[in-house]
Amino acid sequence: MDLTQGTLEEKNERAKKMMLWFGLISLFMSFAGLTSAVIISRTRPDWSDDLQLPQIFLYSVFVIIASSITFIIAKRALKSGNRAMTSLFLILTLVLGTVFIFMQFEGFNTLINSGYYLTGETSNPKASFIFLIAFVHILHVAVGLFCLLVVIYNHFKQKYIANKMLGLTLAGTFWHFIDILWVFLYLLLYFVA
Q1: Alpha-carbon distance 61 to 44, whole Å?
Q2: 182 against 122, higher pLDDT
């Protein structure tokens, strides 16, 4: 398909999707760098094998997966013309994303109460990586929540219909990406670190 063909709206849509994918690829590369750093650093003598991930991080995996499912249901509801169901599941996705962030901070509190810190004399590389990776991911979830707020606002303004929902689709792609990313990061921190 020739990317220069089509209406201005079609070209605009392709450009926005392409920009999102470039952003996601750069985000993937950033976390790939952190993953490499974890794998290399775990051979250090000061790496703490005793440090276990807080249980709430596991629960947050299920919450973030549930939020992807609610987003999918919201999109399907919009495609079928059920605006009320779309509203309900978009708001539920927002609530689950917010709960996820609270769970992450509770995980940080658990680590701190166990004597692990990001930096300082009592810190160690494993704890520092857990704090760093989880916090950087939280920042991206916060961006996703902002996107969800914009989508919810536009939905209530009735800017989306079954065959015209670019904003919702782009936000959904980003949301699913950061959800899958957390599942990967959790597995990395649990099994590799």
Answers
A1: 28
A2: 182
Calculate the average pLDDT of the chain.
93
Q: How far apart are CA 52 and CA 41, in angstroms?
A: 17
Q: At residue 165, does pLDDT exceed 90?
A: yes
24 within a domain of the structure (yes/no): no
> Helix and strand tally (H, E) in the chain?
5, 0
CA dist 151 and 92 (Å) reads 13
Give the chain's domain count: 1
When pLDDT is cut at 50, 70 and 90, the band that residue 43 belongs to is very high
Q: Where are the alpha helices (DSSP H) in 45-82?
A: 55-79
Band (105; pLDDT cuts 50, 70, 90): very high
Show the tokens assigned to 134. Answer: 């989880």
- Those residues with Cβ within 8 angstroms of residue 158's Cβ, 6 or more apart along the chain or in another chain: 83
Nearest to 184 by CA among 20, 49, 31, 22: 31
Burial of 18 (0-12, 13-18, 19+ CB in 10 A): exposed
Tokens 């929902």 — which residue?
A: 165
In a domain, 12, yes or no: no
Which CATH number does the domain housing residue 121 bear? 1.20.120.80
In a domain, residue 68? The reply is yes
Domain holding 130, by residue range, is 54-192
| 147 and 174 Cβ atoms separated by less than 8 Å | yes
